[in-house]
């Protein structure tokens, strides 16, 4: 069975500093995708970044990067130069069979000025 | 801009009174999904449409139904809402092939927050 684990219920970071949100996964599939979504208090799920299981390079999107370690089955999100607007819930997800998303429990990030 | 739109953003209904939530998309994606998200939890997939083919999750209550009259629109019908159905309902879309690749990004709408009185 496929599973996503986010072990940090809450994290805080000082504005302008970097923060890493942890995500580990379990799957027997050879081909899969890993996704990070941001959910502010408004409720919308905002797609941040994607990593394919066959991608050799770590994905980057602006201030977001994904530290993908396939052998350890981890896909940590790194946010550089944190901003107050980064305060939100962050979900790690894996694309499962027929493109169903399996979500982790989420990490609530608070950015302090 | 291409997007996923949900209406209304907030819906209040009475216990047992049928309610319909709507979702539309301008992305021309072939797959549409409905998720239920309760407070402080991850989204839970209720069902999805691959084109016109309806796929129900095994644990989705019969109280929840869906319609997709065309590519752009999808509706979530709750026949007799209970207090436990109060939640955020998220619609998502993706452009996907019928494979197990699991590599296609899902794009979400802003959600409809349902309150049941």
Using the alpha-carbon principal axes, give the shape of chain B: globular
Mean pLDDT of chain A: 95
Distance between the termini of chain B: 36 Å
Radius of gyration of chain A: 13 Å
Chain oligomer state: heterodimer
Name the helicity range of chain A.
under 10%
Taking pLDDT < 50 over at least 5 consecutive residues as the criterion, the unreliable ranges of chain B are none
Strand content of chain A: over 45%
Over all CA atoms, what is the radius of gyration of chain B?
14 Å
Number of helices of chain A: 0
- Structural class estimated from helices and strands of chain B: mainly beta
| Helix/sheet category of chain A | mainly beta
Largest interface, with Cβ-Cβ < 8 Å? A-B, 28 and 29 residues
What is the 3D shape of chain A?
globular
Count of distinct strands of chain A = 12
Number of helices of chain B: 0
Low-confidence parts of chain A, pLDDT < 50 over ≥5 residues?
Answer: none
Helix/strand order of chain B, N-terminal first: EEEEEEEEEEE
Order of helices and strands of chain A: EEEEEEEEEEEE
What brief labels describe this structure?
heterodimer, A: 113 residues, mainly beta, 6-stranded mixed beta sheet, 4-stranded antiparallel beta sheet, 52% strand, globular, B: 117 residues, 7-stranded mixed beta sheet
Question: Would you kindly provide a written description of the structure presented here, covering whatever features stand out?
Answer:
Chain A has strands at residues 3-5, 10-14, 19-21, 24-26, 33-39, 46-52, 60-61, 64-69, 74-79, 88-95, 101-103, 107-112. Chain A is mainly β and 113 residues long. In chain A, strands 2, 5, 6, 10, 11 and 12 form a 6-stranded mixed β-sheet that branches. In chain A, a hairpin with a 5-residue loop joins β10 (88-95) and β11 (101-103). Chain A starts with a strand and ends with a strand. Chain B is globular. Chain B contains no helices and 11 strands. In chain B, strands 2, 4, 5, 6, 9, 10 and 11 form a 7-stranded mixed β-sheet that branches. A 4-stranded antiparallel β-sheet of chain B has the order 1-3-8-7, with no helix packed on it. Chain B has 117 residues and is mostly beta strands. The mean pLDDT of chain B is 93. The A-B interface holds A 29, 31-33, 35, 37, 42-47, 50, 52-53, 91, 94-101, 103-106 and B 31, 37, 41-43, 45, 48, 50, 55, 88, 90, 92, 94, 96, 98-111, 113.
